[in-house]
C-alpha cells in the first residue's frame, strides 16, 4: 500500500526485516503518522461464542480477515457506525454480527475454492502463483480435501460399489521464462510437509494470456509444459521411497493419438510406471483443458470406487479458464 499523511496505516505481523522497512518508511512521513499492527484473529469471537467460518478458506486468510476488520472499523469511525455499539463490542474482543456475516459470505472465485463436478470428481482451485502462496495452497488443499466427504461415500453406486479410495491429481501451469523451482519446488516440498500424496500430475497450457482473458486462437505448443513435467518427475524421483531416476526413464512410455472429440486435437501423455513400494506414478501433458476435463470425467465414470480430487493451481489464467470450462457462476 501507499502511506498517506492524515490516514492511518495498518499491517499484519511481518518478518523482522520487513517490519523494520515499514517502520522506516513510516518515520519519513513525519510526526503524527500512525502505523499499527492489527490484532490477531484469535482475539475476536462472536457474542454467542460460535465460530466464524470465513467464506475464503485457508489459514493464511485469517490475517487478511483481521486486517479487513480493522479497516472496516476505521471506515465506520469516519462515516458513522453501521450499528450502534459496534465499537464497544470490538473493544471487548466481540465481533459484531454485521462483520461476521460479511466475512462468512465473502466469495473470491478461484481462491481456495471447491467446485464439485460429476459424481466422484471435485475440483480444488487456488490461483496461487508465488513461492509463499504455493505453500499456503498446499496447506489448504491438505485440510480441505481431507475434511470433505467422498462423493457417494457409504452409498451404493453403479455396479454395487461404494467410493472408498481417493486419488489426488495436480493440474498445473505457470508462466514460461520463470524458474520452475520457485513454484513447483515450493509446492512439492509443501506437499511432503503436509503428507499429501499426488497420484497424477497433469500439465496443460492455458487458453488465456496476459493481453487479456480471451481464448488463444490456433494450435499451442506444449514445450514449456513438457519442461514442467520433466522437472516434476525429477522431484518425484528424488522423494523418499522412490526408485532411481535412471531406472525411471527406462520404464516411461509416450503415447500420442488424435481424438476428433477433443478440442485441440492431439493428446500427448507421458506415463512413468515405477516399481517398488511407491507403486505406479504418472505425469501427463495435455494440449487443452477440454481434453483434461474429458479424461478426468471419463476416469470418474469408469471407476466408481474412486474419488478424484483435482487441485488446479500455479496460474490465475489457468484457474480462470477452468472456471469457465466448468461453467461456474457466482
UniProtKB/TrEMBL annotation:
GO terms for molecular function: ATP binding; metal ion binding; tetrahydrofolylpolyglutamate synthase activity. Keywords: ATP-binding, Ligase, Magnesium, Metal-binding, Nucleotide-binding, One-carbon metabolism. Its EC number is 6.3.2.17. GO terms for cellular component: cytosol; mitochondrion. It catalyses: (6S)-5,6,7,8-tetrahydrofolyl-(gamma-L-Glu)(n) + L-glutamate + ATP = (6S)-5,6,7,8-tetrahydrofolyl-(gamma-L-Glu)(n+1) + ADP + phosphate + H(+). Pathway: Cofactor biosynthesis; tetrahydrofolylpolyglutamate biosynthesis. It comes from the Eukaryota. GO terms for biological process: one-carbon metabolic process. Gene3D superfamilies: Mur ligase, C-terminal domain (3.90.190.20), Mur-like, catalytic domain (3.40.1190.10). Belongs to the folylpolyglutamate synthase family. This is tetrahydrofolate synthase.
Amino acid at each position: 500500500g501507499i502511506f498517506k499523511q492524515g490516514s492511518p496505516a495498518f499491517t499484519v505481523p511481518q518478518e523482522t526485516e520487513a517490519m523494520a522497512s515499514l517502520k522506516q518508511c513510516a518515520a519519513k512521513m513525519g510526526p503524527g503518522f500512525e502505523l499499527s499492527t492489527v490484532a490477531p484473529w484469535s482475539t475476536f469471537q462472536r457474542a454467542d461464542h460460535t465460530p466464524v467460518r470465513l467464506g475464503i478458506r485457508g489459514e493464511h486468510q485469517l490475517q487478511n480477515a483481521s486486517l479487513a476488520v480493522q479497516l472496516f472499523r476505521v471506515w465506520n469511525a469516519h462515516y458513522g457506525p453501521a450499528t450502534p455499539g459496534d465499537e464497544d463490542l470490538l473493544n471487548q474482543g466481540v465481533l459484531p454480527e454485521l462483520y461476521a456475516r460479511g466475512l462468512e459470505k465473502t466469495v473470491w472465485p478461484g481462491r481456495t475454492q471447491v467446485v464439485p463436478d460429476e459424481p466422484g470428481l471435485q475440483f480444488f482451485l487456488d490461483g496461487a502463483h508465488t513461492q509463499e502462496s504455493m505453500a499456503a495452497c498446499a496447506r489448504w488443499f491438505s485440510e480441505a480435501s481431507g475434511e470433505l466427504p467422498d462423493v457417494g461415500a457409504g452409498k451404493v453406486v453403479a455396479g454395487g460399489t461404494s467410493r472408498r479410495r481417493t486419488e489426488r491429481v495436480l493440474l498445473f501451469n505457470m508462466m514460461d521464462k520463470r524458474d520452475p523451482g520457485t513454484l513447483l519446488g515450493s509446492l512439492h516440498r509443501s506437499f511432503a510437509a503436509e503428507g499429501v500424496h499426488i497420484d497424477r500430475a497433469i500439465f496443460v497450457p492455458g487458453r488465456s494470456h496476459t493481453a487479456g482473458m480471451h481464448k488463444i486462437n490456433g494450435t499451442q505448443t506444449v514445450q514449456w509444459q513438457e519442461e514442467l513435467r520433466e522437472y516434476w518427475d525429477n522431484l518425484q524421483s528424488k522423494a523418499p521411497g522412490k526408485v532411481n531416476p535412471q531406472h525411471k526413464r527406462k520404464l516411461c512410455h509416450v503415447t500420442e493419438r488424435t481424438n476428433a472429440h477433443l478440442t485441440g486435437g492431439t493428446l500427448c501423455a507421458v506415463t512413468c510406471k515405477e516399481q517398488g513400494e511407491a507403486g505406479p506414478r504418472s505425469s501427463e501433458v495435455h494440449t487443452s483443458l477440454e481434453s483434461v476435463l474429458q479424461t478426468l470425467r471419463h476416469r470418474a465414470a469408469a471407476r466408481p470406487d474412486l474419488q478424484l480430487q483435482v487441485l488446479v493451481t500455479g496460474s490465475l489464467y489457468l484457474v480462470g479458464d477452468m472456471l469457465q470450462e466448468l461453467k461456474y457462476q457466482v
